[in-house]
Amino acid sequence: MEPWEEEEGPEVVKRFMYVNRRAPYGTIYALECLEVVLVAAAFDQDVSVVFVDDGIYQLKKDQDTSGIGMKNFSKTYRALDDYDVEKIYVEKESLEKRGLTEDDLIIPVEVVAADNLRGIMAQQDVVISS
Amino acid sequence: MSKMLDLINKSPFDRNALDSCLRLAEAGSSVLLIEDGVYAALKKAESAGAVGERMNELTFYVLGPDVSARGLDDTPLIDGVNVVDYGGFVDLVVEHDVAQSWL
User: Fold this and answer.
1) CATH numbers and ranges of domains, chain A
2) What's the ipTM?
3) Which candidate in B10, B16, B36, B89 is best for mutational testing of the A interface (most A CBs within 10 A)?
4) How far is the CA of A105 from the CAs of A59, B23, B56, in angstroms?
5) What is the pLDDT of residue B27?
């Protein structure tokens, strides 16, 4: 067996975490990361998605981009559930700093304090931040 | 003295453009928040305090289409911040002698 060939037996599933730290629209990071998450989920990996800092603005309800000539991709976050991406975390401190609450968000999330998020991050095999 | 229009297009949580502008803008200037800068107009955000401190000396504007795009139409803005559309943006540029973008 050559080194690049896969081992027999159960497929290795890695824990991938995507950390979103940017607001939508002002830069391309948020949209690009969402697309990467959907691709990774299609490969049946263990995917979790985290929203911290300005990244929480990606999930704000009621986005209407008709006035700025850009695609409103906020509804695509609802597709995460269809891709079996169910581990979606939002940092409590980031919400509070921006005066937002869980009710302001477009999808159900797990709001976690930084103390707990730290532990979840530490369990990952791959962490990709944008 | 030139009448200055200060343009902020970065989130106050991501960059210090707003802080620098608030520190250096001459009284009587106008500040227009656009793109990710519109987050600085939110009343309940931590950045509101710094804006409030210069509310009496500066006139604040925020670009409505950028507010709507970010889902903030029903999120309270700081009292006294004026919402303008693209036409209003053009008017502000015309009314001021100098436009400074705090990139």
Assistant:
1) 12-65+74-129 (3.40.1260.10)
2) 0.92
3) B36
4) 5, 33, 33
5) 97
Torsion of CA A88, B13, A95, A92, to 10 degrees: 70
Q: Do A97 and B46 touch (CB under 8 A)?
A: yes
Better-predicted residue by pLDDT, A129 or A9? A129
Å between A96 CA and nearest CA of chain B: 8
Chain A residues with a Cβ under 8 Å from any Cβ in chain B: 22-27, 53-54, 57, 60-68, 70, 72, 74, 97-100, 104, 106
Q: Looking at the predicted structure, is the pLDDT value of residue A1 above 80?
A: no
Cβ–Cβ below 8 Å for A63 and B71? yes
- C-alpha–C-alpha distance, residues A58 and A36, integer Å: 15
| CB spacing of B39 vs A60 below 8 angstroms | no
Please give the pLDDT value at position B87.
Answer: 98
**CA proximity to A23, closest of A48, A54, A47:** A54
**Chain pair A-B, CB pairs under 8 angstroms:** 79
Helices (H), A16-57: 29-42
Higher pLDDT, B1 or B56: B56
Average pLDDT for residues A82-100, to the nearest whole number? 97
Q: What is the pLDDT of residue A80?
A: 95
Residues B52-78: what's their mean pLDDT? 98
